[in-house]
Write a structure and sequence with these properties.
- By secondary structure, the protein is an alpha+beta fold.
- It has a single domain, classed as Cytochrome P450 (Cytochrome p450).
- Helices cover 49% and strands 10% of the residues.
- The protein is built from 17 helices and twelve strands.
- The chain has helices at residues 20-29, 49-57, 78-88, 101-110, 115-120, 122-137, 146-151, 153-163, 170-181, 192-215, 221-227, 237-268, 270-278, 281-295, 326-329, 365-382, 413-418, and strands spanning 32-35, 43-46, 62-63, 143-145, 300-305, 309-311, 314-316, 321-325, 385-388, 393-394, 403-405, 407-411.
- Strands 1-2-8-5-3 form a five-stranded mixed beta sheet. A three-stranded antiparallel beta sheet has the order 4-12-9. Strands 6-7 form a two-stranded antiparallel sheet.
- Helix 6 (122-137) runs antiparallel to helix 8 and helix 9 runs antiparallel to helix 10 (192-215).
- It is globular.
Length: 420
């Protein structure tokens, strides 16, 4: 292998497999690498744990601001940027802001994501997990699509509960999220108009929900957002639309794919699933973090250099695009012993799945961990064995490490006993 074999812009390269061999090569031979771009200046790739953490925390030099390019797009595309600007209007999203603006916006919602508030949701999330698992068991002798029937359902119910969205509307968020995040996958959306339509539908729904909470406040995050004032600032209607999009997509897609990636790994390593069956306490203590490290649902975020910087012999110029590859940092041999081994007892586990610190550390990390813990706890309590009925179908994306479908058969303790 050499650098010419590596094409991180190829979405198709991520469909059949995750190219961990590429990242291993980069970490060893070119940990700070200027990746070419067909119709643009290229972008820097950071693949080591220590560099990803350092750049992620240095927001002054490496900006997330959408006016500098934002956090997702690696290729220059004026047409795409124009479409995004038209869809977003004058609204701003917290994910693509820098402090102090980011700090003020984050304060508006952070009280809804404290460990105390998240703990208060556990009983409802656990009841939802029981309902989801038992509904999947009732289907066709336990044959189910783990992604659609289990992994997608709990995050949808959680974010619907969190936002005050009616239960019967939760699948609208699933469809919108798939089209917005999976827009380059033919199963979800083919034409740019499909993506734009999903965004407009989501914003229309958000406007109606926001208008209702302005008139009829409730004890939910939407009411906090539309009525909250921080340092004299209040969200505009367009800002609220962007917040709704962020919370919906981030609260749905990432946890769904973390759960799905975790199950795909467990099916390949049934001894690890048996560990959870034998001792469910490891789920909350070490297993969830290993699933997050091993699966890394968000592969990278982009940053944008605000100044010239010389770093380890490389000159990063103001305006350069810099991609922080979390999925590579989470397999760094200098940090993780046997990084390609799926070990639910791994400790310590300093993965960077939630960003690696800094102002953009994931706001919903406590909620994501709880969702994963309670679903796996209720699953192993009822399903001591799971059979893989087909290969995972991966999302066509170089940004989200997603699985669209994962056919399985859930085997109960009674079925296991009767088979002996």
């Amino acid at each position: 292998m050499d650098l010419t074999d590596i094409d991180l812009l190829s979405r198709d390269a991520f469909v059949e497999r995750m190219p961990h061999d590429w990242f291993a090569y980069l970490r060893e031979h070119a940990p700070i690498y200027r990746h070419p771009e067909p119709n643009g200046p290229g972008f820097w790739v950071l693949s080591r744990h220590k560099d990803v953490v350092a750049f992620n925390r240095n927001w002054e030099a490496f900006s997330s601001d959408d006016r500098r390019g934002g956090v997702v797009a690696l290729e220059d595309d004026p047409e795409r940027d124009t479409r995004a600007a038209e869809m977003n209007g004058a609204g701003r999203m917290m994910l693509t802001m820098d402090p102090p603006e980011h700090t003020r916006y984050r304060k508006l919602v952070s009280r809804g994501f404290t460990p105390r508030v998240i703990r208060s949701l556990e009983d409802r999330l656990r009841a939802a997990s029981v309902r989801i698992v038992e509904r999947a068991l009732a289907k066709d002798d336990g044959r189910a699509d783990f992604v659609v029937d289990l992994a997608a359902e709990l995050p949808l119910e959680a974010i619907a509960e969190f936002l005050g969205v009616p239960y019967e509307d939760r699948h609208k968020m699933f469809e919108w999220s798939n089209k917005l995040i999976g827009s380059e996958d033919p199963e979800y959306a083919v034409l740019p108009d499909d993506v734009a339509r999903a965004g407009y539908e989501m914003f229309t729904y958000a406007n109606a929900l926001g208008a209702d909470r302005r008139a009829n406040p409730r004890d939910d995050i939407v009411s906090d957002l539309v009525h909250g004032v921080i340092d004299g600032d209040q969200l505009s209607e367009l800002d609220f639309d962007q917040f709704f999009l962020l919370l919906t997509v981030a609260g749905n897609e990432t946890t769904r794919n973390a759960l799905s990636q975790g199950m795909a790994a467990l099916l390949e390593h049934p001894d690890q699933y048996q560990l959870m069956v034998d001792d469910p306490t490891i789920i909350g203590s070490t297993a969830v973090d290993e699933v997050l490290r091993y699966g890394s649902p968000v592969m990278y975020f982009r940053r944008n250099a605000t100044q010239d910087i010389d770093y380890e012999g490389h000159h990063i110029a103001a305006g350069d695009k810099v991609a922080l590859w979390y999925i590579s940092a989470n397999r760094d041999e200098q940090v993780f012993e046997q990084p390609d081994t799926f070990d639910l007892l791994r400790h310590p586990n300093p993965h960077v799945t939630f960003g690696g610190g800094g102002p953009h550390s994931c706001l919903g990390l406590h909620l994501a961990r709880m969702e994963m813990r309670v679903l796996f706890e209720e699953l192993v309590a009822r399903v001591p064995r799971i059979h893989k009925l087909g290969e995972p179908q991966r999302l066509r994306s170089n940004f989200i490490n997603g699985i669209k479908h994962l056919p399985v058969q859930l085997i109960t303790a009674d079925q296991t006993a009767s088979a002996r």
